[in-house]
Design brief:
Blueprint: H1 3-8, H2 28-31, H3 58-62, E1 69-75, H4 78-89, H5 95-113, E2 118-121, H6 126-132, H7 136-148, E3 157-159, H8 171-178, E4 182-184, E5 193-201, H9 205-216, E6 221-229
Parallel strand pairs: 1-6, 2-5, 5-6
Antiparallel strand pairs: 3-4
Helix pairs in contact: 5-7
Bound molecules: zinc ion (2 copies).
Residues 13, 15-16, 18, 27, 30 line the site of one zinc ion.
Length: 233
């Protein structure tokens, strides 16, 4: 953020929401309250596994996903839940800088190894976007694209139906809620390796629904990267 803007709107800490001070993206004591995702991880969705468990989390053992692989930076616990909710609903866009820095720190090597051609944020329905003023996934995607030097396409996917928040639904309802929720834009997706960006990964039904549309339109492989991920289900 330019210095002048920093004086008028001082950057806030993504954990306690106090002014972080100077150029810091987070206050030091707050860093300890976060739970970065750490090995061992599920080989499919990147969820942290308890040691001794198999290669895949219980969720990925149970269902077949349409995406190839995915990763996230933080476990979705109470701290992350509040942080992401302020990011989305209280317009704390500056948190995005912290999230992206941490996503790169833990996942850049994985993302590089996937040879991504295009980064695509999970879209919001346009009425929801208008109400919120921005799409949090798009903001993250743009910053990541800039850092990684990979093109970002916010219009490759759009949401044609307003869906209920996934967190209010059970497994089966999540799937039917998302059926036909996404459409592709005019863009050429043929043979492309696409990285989807979202804020929270839980069961993967949103990523799978988006991946299904992209794959139907010729995408070669679909991966995802999210700020946070729930522990097994
Ligand atoms: Zn803090
Ligand atoms: Zn998994």
């Amino acid at each position: 953020m330019p210095r002048l803007l920093n004086l008028i709107y001082p950057r806030r800490c993504p954990v306690c929401d106090d002014i972080a001070g100077g150029k810091r993206l987070i206050c030091e004591p707050c860093r300890l309250r976060l739970h970065p995702v750490s090995e061992p991880l599920c080989k499919k969705c990147g969820k942290p596994l308890s040691t001794g468990e198999a290669e895949y989390c219980p969720d990925c053992r149970r269902r077949k996903h349409l995406y190839t692989r995915g990763r996230a930076a933080f476990e979705y616990g109470s701290v992350m839940k509040e942080s992401i909710s302020r990011f989305k609903y209280k317009n704390r866009r500056e948190y995005g800088d912290f999230y992206v820095r941490e996503m790169l720190k833990s996942c850049e090597a994985a993302v590089r190894s996937w040879n991504i051609d295009l980064i695509v944020p999970i879209p919001l329905h346009k009425s929801r976007r208008r109400k919120r003023g921005f799409n949090q996934a798009e903001l993250i995607a743009q910053k990541l694209g800039k850092e990684l030097g990979i093109p970002v396409s916010p219009n490759a996917l759009f949401r044609v139906r307003k869906t209920k928040p996934q967190k209010e639904l059970n497994d089966q309802e999540r799937k039917s809620n998302l059926k036909d929720a996404f459409r592709t834009g005019k863009q050429d997706l043929e043979f492309k390796k696409i990285l989807l960006i979202d804020d929270i990964y839980t069961t993967g039904s949103t990523i799978d629904a988006a991946a299904s549309v992209l794959l139907d339109h010729g995408a070669e492989k679909v991966y995802f990267l999210s700020i946070s991920i729930g522990r097994g289900y």
